[in-house]
Amino acid sequence: MSQVNAQSGSEQPRRRGRPPVAPADQAARKALMRAGLVHLTERGYSSVGVDEILRTSGVAKGSFYYHFGSKAAFGSALIDAYHAYFAVKLAAWFERPDLAPLDRLRGFIADAELGMAQHGFRRGCLIGNLGQEMASLPPEFSDRLIAVLEDWQHRTAACLRLAQEAGQIPAHHAPDELAAFFWIGWEGAVLRAKLERKAEPLRQFADGFLRLVTH
């Protein structure tokens, strides 16, 4: 039935589409996302069930499926959220005008180590964790994960290119290749740091990479 304007008596068309998300629903979605990021950065996708996410978040199962529809949709949303979070982090370091370009990379590395240390090195990188599980993940995750890593490489290459222009990196290096090498090695270092519960793997890789790019 059409809605009637109380003053004019004219009919107003009913609005179509999904109703606006209420504040309580927004809070539930945020709680689910927080719980998902904690569990998946600690243990991975395959070993964490929806019921565990619900217990941690305190959200009802019906609300989970209202927001995500499936565990695969939830995983996709987590990839997007983690990508957005990390894009902000990389921009905050790589675009700092008060630091020389290579010092921006050093700052990012130190900040990442601090972030892992704050959680006792129990949490790794969501993208790296999921990449190790690809055999048991939804097939569509592969392209999404590759796109995230390529974006991180692109941002890192831009920073390294600035370092090269500033004379911090010799001209014979190729910034795009260095950026790809950095993320391949860095993800491995994060995994090793999580495994050993200590920062040494991060520092060893960072020191070796910085020696490489400056010679």
Overview of the molecule:
The chain has helices at residues 23-42, 50-57, 61-67, 71-94, 101-118, 126-132, 141-165, 175-196, 200-213; strands spanning 3-4, 11-12. The chain has 215 residues and is mostly helical. It has a two-stranded antiparallel ribbon. A hairpin with a 6-residue loop joins strand 1 and strand 2 (11-12). Helix 4 (71-94) packs parallel to helix 7 (141-165) and helix 8 (175-196) packs antiparallel against helix 9 (200-213). The chain is elongated, with a radius of gyration of 22 Å.
Topology of helices and strands:
Layout: E1 3-4, E2 11-12, H1 23-42, H2 50-57, H3 61-67, H4 71-94, H5 101-118, H6 126-132, H7 141-165, H8 175-196, H9 200-213
Antiparallel strand pairs: 1-2
Helix/strand order, N-terminal first? EEHHHHHHHHH
What is the CATH C level class of the domain at 79-213, in words? Mainly Alpha
Biggest sheet features: 2 strands, antiparallel
Oligomer: single chain
| Amino- and carboxy-terminal Cα gap | 75 Å
Q: Rg from C-alpha positions?
A: 22 Å
Number of strands: 2
Order of strands, widest sheet:
1-2
Structural shape: elongated
**Low-confidence runs (pLDDT<50, min 5 residues)?**
1-15, 17-21
CATH-derived topology of the domain at 79-213: Tetracycline Repressor, domain 2
How many helical stretches? 9
For the residues shown, what is the average pLDDT? Answer: 90
Q: Assess the beta-strand content as a share of residues.
A: under 5%
* CATH 4th-level superfamily of the domain at 79-213: Tetracycline Repressor, domain 2
Q: What is the percent of helical residues?
A: 55-70%
The CATH architecture of the domain at 79-213 can be named as Orthogonal Bundle
Alpha-beta content class: mainly alpha
